[in-house]
TrEMBL record:
PANTHER family: VACUOLAR PROTEIN 8. The lineage of its organism: Eukaryota, Viridiplantae, Chlorophyta, core chlorophytes, Trebouxiophyceae. Keywords: Repeat. Signal peptide: none annotated. Belongs to the beta-catenin family. It comes from Chlorella vulgaris. Coiled coil: none annotated. The keyword Repeat applies. This is Uncharacterized protein. The keyword Cytoplasm does not apply.
Length: 286
């Protein structure tokens, strides 16, 4: 194994060598291996580097006909965005956000690992800068992420989608408004209700609770929308009372407090409490 670069100049030189294998004529095997090498190199050192050229070439690889190349390019782009501002500028110049959303919108033709990496990439773009966030929203990225936040998809896709939605919601009021307008509150409520009955969905549950908390905070309208979403209040109560996860309990309690202080949500909360009390009473006779 080659020794790790010890200086910024050595690191930049090593990255430049890898970049040669990301060119269009390098071949799929070399491209996918080089993209994964970029990920590993960026994860293993904090040395600064100019990633503009690598980002440009990775952006072009999103259009590859080989899913494994696209998959690794998406993962490498996320790593580049987290490592250097030069990558953010290059992503803007080479339409990475638009390419990623377009690719994700191709739907059932995508393989699951590629979908997962694209969801991570969109979440990273949402956090990277105001410009990449706005491009994501304008291109319909929130809608594409929300589409995967559904019980009909695999748990891995659900978790990745809700994680990206959390990053979107944390990016500011504009992103929350777009996500809410696209139906994020009832979608996440349905996902939360489904995850409350599964012992293997802890990460989905805590992320859904966290995202809902961000979306309904300081928004009475969204609080009411959540309160009246089928199964939502019952699911929140479940995580307060029965969850073994302290994070879930704490976030669920905060979310319930938001709903309980909204007078317009009172009837929905009262109905859910009565339904739960009736169910618990019935269990005592079984």
């Amino acid at each position: 194994m080659a020794a790790a670069p010890k200086s910024p100049d050595d690191f930049q030189l090593a990255l430049d060598r890898i970049a040669a294998h990301l060119q269009q004529d390098a071949g799929a095997d070399a491209q996918q291996a080089a993209a994964m090498t970029v990920v590993l190199m960026l994860q293993s050192t904090q040395l600064p580097a100019n990633l503009a050229v690598i980002t440009e070439r990775l952006a072009a690889l999103l259009d590859s006909s080989q899913p494994v190349v696209q998959r690794n390019a998406a993962a490498a782009l996320s790593a580049c965005l987290e490592a250097s501002d030069s990558s953010v500028a290059s992503c803007l110049e080479h339409t990475v956000t638009q390419r990623a959303v377009t690719l994700l919108s191709s739907g059932s033709s995508l393989d699951t690992p590629l979908e997962l990496n694209l969801l991570v990439l969109l979440g990273t773009l949402a956090e990277a800068s105001e410009a990449t966030l706005q491009l994501l929203l304008d291109a319909g990225g929130a809608e594409q992420v929300l589409h995967r936040a559904s019980p009909q998809h695999s748990p891995q896709l659900q978790e990745a989608a809700v994680d990206s939605l959390c990053k979107l919601a944390a990016s500011g009021p504009a992103a929350k408004d777009v996500a809410a307008a696209a139906g994020a509150v009832p979608k996440l409520a349905a996902l939360l209700a489904a995850s409350s009955t599964s012992s293997d969905a802890a990460e989905i549950s805590v992320r859904a609770l966290l995202c809902l908390g961000m979306l309904v905070s300081d928004s009475p309208e969204r609080q009411v929308e959540l309160a009246y979403a089928p199964g939502a209040v019952a699911a929140v109560l479940h995580f307060i009372r029965k969850s073994d996860d302290g994070d879930c309990q704490q976030i669920a309690a905060g979310l319930f407090k938001e709903l309980a202080t909204n007078a317009a949500a009172k009837d929905a909360i009262t109905a859910a409490l009565k339904e739960q009390q009736a169910a618990e009473a019935a269990l005592r006779f079984l």
